[in-house]
Amino acid sequence: MKRCAIFSVSCLQTILHNQCLSFASNCLPFFSYRSCLYHGLSSSSTNIRPFPDYSPKKPTIRDAEFVHHISTTIKLRRSESLRRILKSYESKFRPDHLIWIFMSIKNDYKLVLDFFDWACLRREPSLEARCIVVQIATASKDLKMVHGLIREFWEKPNLDVSLSFTNFAEKLIYTYKDWGSDPHVFDIFFQVLVETGMLNEARNFFDKLLTYGLVLSVDSCNLFLSHLSRNFDGFEMAIKVFNEYPEVGICWNTTSYNIIINSICQLGKIKEAHHLLLKMEFRGSIPDVVTYSTIISKYCHVGELQKALRLIGEMEAKGLKANPYICNSIILFLCKNGKLFEAEKVLREMMMQGVVPDNVVYTTLIDGYCKLSNVPAAYLLFDEMRVRKIIPDFVTYTAIIHGFCKAGKMTEADNIFHEMVSRGLQPDEVTYTTLIDGYCKTGEVKKAFSLHNQMARKGLVPNVVTYTALADGLCKQGEVDIAIELLQEIHSNGLQLNVCTYNSIVNGLCKSGNIVQAQKLKEKMEEVAGMHPDSFTYTTLMDAYCKIREMDKAYMLLQEMWDRGYKPTVVTFNVLMNGFCLSGMLEDGERLLEWMLEKGIMPNTTTYNSLMKLYCIRNNMRATTEIYRGMCAQGLMPDNNTYNILIKGHCKARDMKTAGFLHKEMVAKGFLLTASSYNALIKGFHKRKKFVEARELFEEMRRQGLIADREIYNLFVDMIYKEGNMEVTLDLCDEVIENCLVRSKNEDM
Ligand SMILES: *[C@@H]1O[C@H](CO)[C@@H](O)[C@H](O)[C@H]1NC(C)=O
Ligand SMILES: *[C@@H]1O[C@H](CO)[C@@H](O)[C@H](O)[C@H]1NC(C)=O
Ligand SMILES: *[C@@H]1O[C@H](CO)[C@@H](O)[C@H](O)[C@H]1NC(C)=O
């Protein structure tokens, strides 16, 4: 039939819904007079209007005769087409005739349809005629047709929606009583309104039907709720409808609750959503897996894992099994918090309980492991996916490629990349850039460039990150000139290079010890591409010089920076200060501090710590104390490093009184001592024959899980053995064996 082409998925859904209508009638009569349900209104039953009678215009005698001829002809036809047998009537046929003919053939549904089709080919039928066919089709239970006939009307171009709605609704009500009297017709009309986005009209129609004492089905209302809550603006309206409709007799079921609970969650009101879950059972709707999983995943999303787990418990106690959606929410939560092992444990447990994870769950875990640089674990999962025939998608491939690239395993990354392409998945700029970066980092710059060309051939545009990776790769190979050329070319091609590109390359070069190249890059970039270093560039270079003890070069950079008007920050100064101290250049350190204070750059505790550490090494506790006082005078508070430095310094200078005092103060402030501070204190007290203090510290240290020097263990093993406490002695010996075998390095001062 011609109209079948109109049927869409949503139409089929409607039909499915309608097959379930009998279910709803267990809950309430499908259509109920408001008066029966709602006693408050039943007394005022005058409010309820009857459906109108159908009263068409009477035909003239000539028309009646004409109609009679056509009706007889079409009723008597066998297999001939209407077109042929009606050929002689065609010229005299008027739209008016259509309805009179319907009156005479209304009991033959197929004929009505055929005749309607015939008439439609000639001229657009009146809305009334369409409504009549709709009513007859409903009475004949051809709901698919009904849906199509209504939808067809709304799909006409240039329709004045609001006027058409009023007309259509009126005509439908007008033709209802005499042509069909099947209330499904209103449901389908309503559903089409909803599906075509006429939500206000749908709401008006619902109200209009109430005045006739009709209530639409839950099914229709659920469709309405779900369309309302498709976008954020509709949530409030959906909730309003949800709260109001029961007053007129709608009996919501689990599906309705699920829609609303989802909306409430989307509005971020998870407590209310949870509350509604508890309430729905009282009202006779059993929450299902969808209900639970909506709330559970929201709890995971906002970080309330405990509540999510409790709900899972409740749900399982009811015999409901967690679904992959829940599984994924929990796993996602754990992955986001870096708890990959726990996340995988959840996956295993859920699998044991028969939940089949989907590719999203696996991808979440794979991505999580890759981000933690645990590529072997990621790959195991990736492999497991293949064994279980779960198809990895674009995201999965990108994650694992990224993981391998980060780990420098370019052969594996390349294999996966090819597998991805052979599966018909198209790599994008990010995939290519990841690989290019990987190859550059492993020094395979040629490979990187060939990927770059491949990328360009595919019409993908390399971005700043891609070029940064390439330039970085070139620099690492010592090809700073070519890198500069490349950057210059990109620059002149209009791609905005930023100082981050620059800094990341300088940083990379410095880290790999290519400070000469880094310095060269800095100079050339200014010359060639007009790019200026910033204070981060300078600080990176200075740090590199400090590390190789080239303090004069570092200091020159500070001068240059200053001269060019870049204000060094405390970070820059701390880098230099640390450098001076590492090189034992105490006087320069002192001068730097003065300079800082002079220029109004506030040092911080780290700055002072560097100086104090150096004075302590030089056994100059007087100067140390002076600096400490200076620091406090600046309003800076000592931190854990300060205390550890001072304690070790005073112990070395055998000032156990001050060291002991600092220990107490530090503990009171909640700072922790390092093992080397404990060692220094214990040895100091022991030398002073303050055995009780030494022993207390030794116990405290062990409680902290710190390992003492072997020398200290020996002292205490002797001491306790002499006291005759065999058991403790043996315990200590065990500890010595365990720790001194395990321990490989000691803390340095
Ligand atoms: C709710 O009712 C509608 C219509 O009666 C039905 O299609 C749907 O399956 C019901 N939902 C549940 C969860 O029972
Ligand atoms: C001092 O500055 C350094 C940067 O050089 C920073 O890492 C550190 O956290 C700062 N210390 C304090 C106590 O603010
Ligand atoms: C000082 O405490 C910070 C954290 O507060 C810690 O990262 C650092 O390792 C501690 N330093 C020492 C020397 O204990």
Structure description:
The chain is mostly helical. Among the domains are: 56-123; 126-210; 536-637, Serine Threonine Protein Phosphatase 5, Tetratricopeptide repeat, CATH 1.25.40.10. Helices cover 71% and strands 0% of the residues. It is built from 43 helices and no strands. α38 (640-652) packs antiparallel against α39. The longest helix is centred in the first third of the chain and has 19 residues, at 161-179. The structure holds 2-acetamido-2-deoxy-beta-D-glucopyranose (3 copies). This is Pentatricopeptide repeat-containing protein At1g05670, mitochondrial-like isoform X1. Pfam families: PPR, PPR_2. Keywords: Repeat. PPR repeats lie at residues 253-287, 288-322, 323-357, 358-392, 393-427, 428-462, 463-497, 498-528, 534-568, 569-603, 604-638, 639-673, 674-708.
How are the SSEs placed, and which strands pair?
Blueprint: H1 9-19, H2 21-27, H3 34-37, H4 39-42, H5 61-76, H6 82-85, H7 95-105, H8 109-122, H9 127-139, H10 143-154, H11 161-179, H12 184-195, H13 199-210, H14 218-228, H15 235-244, H16 254-266, H17 270-282, H18 289-301, H19 305-317, H20 324-336, H21 340-352, H22 359-371, H23 375-387, H24 394-406, H25 410-422, H26 429-441, H27 445-457, H28 464-476, H29 480-492, H30 499-511, H31 515-529, H32 535-547, H33 551-563, H34 570-582, H35 586-598, H36 605-617, H37 621-633, H38 640-652, H39 656-668, H40 675-687, H41 691-703, H42 710-723, H43 726-742
Helix pairs in contact: 1-10, 5-7, 7-8, 8-9, 9-10, 9-11, 10-12, 12-13, 12-14, 14-15, 14-16, 15-16, 16-17, 16-18, 17-18, 18-19, 18-20, 20-21, 20-22, 21-22, 22-23, 22-24, 23-24, 24-25, 24-26, 26-27, 26-28, 27-28, 28-29, 28-30, 29-31, 30-31, 30-32, 31-32, 32-33, 32-34, 33-34, 34-35, 34-36, 35-36, ...
The structure holds 2-acetamido-2-deoxy-beta-D-glucopyranose (3 copies).
